Amino acid sequence: MTEREIPSMCQHRPSCPSADSADRESARLVAHHPEQGWSLLCNGVVLFEDTGELLPDGQVIAPHRPLGAGRVVTAA
Ligand SMILES: [Zn+2]
Asked: What pTM was computed for the model?
């Protein structure tokens, strides 16, 4: 377990899915920065405009945009 600034402040009922849940994207938005292309979910997941995700433990989820025909994302 790493002690980072994981906001355990979910006061929603029912509570939001945790960051390691397959359903994590359905957590409530707590911050939305469309001009920067990302949103912060209640469970600490950062959701990017291209559907990529950054989990609170530092794990990166590659974008999984449904209409993936237009753009190829090259990850290092
Ligand atoms: Zn919540």
From this structure: 0.72
Asked, for residue 36, whether it belongs to a domain, the answer is: yes
What counts of helices (H) and strands (E) characterise the chain? 0, 5
Ligand 1 mean position to 16 CA, how many Å? 4
Whether 57 is covered by a domain: the verdict is yes
CA 52–ligand 1 middle distance (angstroms): 20
Report the separation in Å between the CA atom of 2 and the middle of ligand 1, taken as the mean of its atom positions: 21
Residue 39 in any domain: the answer is yes
Compute, in angstroms, the gap from residue 26 CA to the centroid of ligand 1: 10
Closest of 65, 30, 35 to residue 50, by C-alpha: 65
| Tens-place pLDDT, residues 14-29 | 999 999 999 999 999 9
* Residue at 38 is within a domain: yes
pLDDT score at 73: 57
